[in-house]
Amino acid sequence: AEKPADLKVYKSTDIQAQMANDAKNVGFDKSVLSTLDNMMEGNKSVEALYFDHKMNMIGTASFKNCTNLKEVHFDEVVDVIGDEAFAGCTSLKEFSASTSTYGLDAFKGCTSLTTVKMDDTGWKIREGALAECTSLKTVIIPMTIDAIEENVFNGSKAIEELTIPYNYKDRMYTFCSDAKGIKKIFVLTPALYQ
After folding, report:
1. 3-state secondary structure at position 191
2. Starting at the edge strand that comes first in sequence, how are the strands of the sheet with 71-74 ordered?
3. What's the whole-model pTM score?
4. What pLDDT does 135 receive?
5. Percent of the residues in the chain that have a pLDDT greater than 90, as a whole number
6. Alpha carbons 175 and 93: distance in angstroms, whole number
7. What is the tens place of the pLDDT at every residue in 155-175?
């Protein structure tokens, strides 16, 4: 994503203390491989995050309740999105990332979130990862997902399109039981990947 001129870039030495950020656009340089737990929790200033290098982890509740956060940009892989990392980010509308694990309640209560696209690095989706995302309409889960825990989408009743790996088609309603309005289900088969 193109970075704005007013981007505030943090180094690893900057984030060792509790972050008192007042910037709208926040980036992290290559020295930051993981965000700290609760690092910017409850921050009302941040509207966009930019990660332009591989990240090991977005820490537990790093950006929880950043209610004005609208955009998160990952140019490369982030291995783990920690528990409650973006929970309560009520202005976040779309999320797309190369991520292996989505933590417990990672996006719980992101009430403006409409689309989540996971790519082929995905491996595990933990319980409640996309719970109470009341505007969520489109979810794409890749073939590489090896584990989808129960109640991933609890309270996310607006889902209309769901793309899932073929080995989860029989269990779909155990992790998507609240989504009563599903209109399209796409089942990915290994033949699509050959």
Report:
1. helix
2. 8-10, 25-28, 48-51, 71-74
3. 0.89
4. 95
5. 48
6. 22
7. 888 888 888 888 776 666 666
Contacts of 44 (CB under 8 A, 6+ apart): 66, 67, 68
Sign of CA dihedral 118, 121, 123, 128: negative
Query: Token match 């990947």: residue?
Result: 193
CB 92 within 8 A of CB 68: no
Distance CA 6, CA 9 (A): 9
pLDDT in tens, 4-61: 999 999 888 777 655 667 899 999 999 999 999 998 999 999 999 999 889 999 999 9
Supply angle C-alpha 127, 133, 138, rounded to 5: 95
Angle at 126 between CA 120 and CA 132, to 5 degrees: 105
Question: CA-CA distance, 83 to 102, in Å (whole number)?
Answer: 8
Closest CA to 74 of 35, 132, 104: 35
Rounded CA-CA distance 170/145 in Å is 15
- Distance of alpha carbon 119 from alpha carbon 125, whole angstroms: 13
CA pseudo-torsion sign 89, 90, 95, 101 = positive
Surface-to-core class of residue 183, CB atoms within 10 Å of its CB (0-12 exposed, 13-18 middle, 19+ buried): exposed
Q: Give the three-class secondary structure for 16.
A: helix
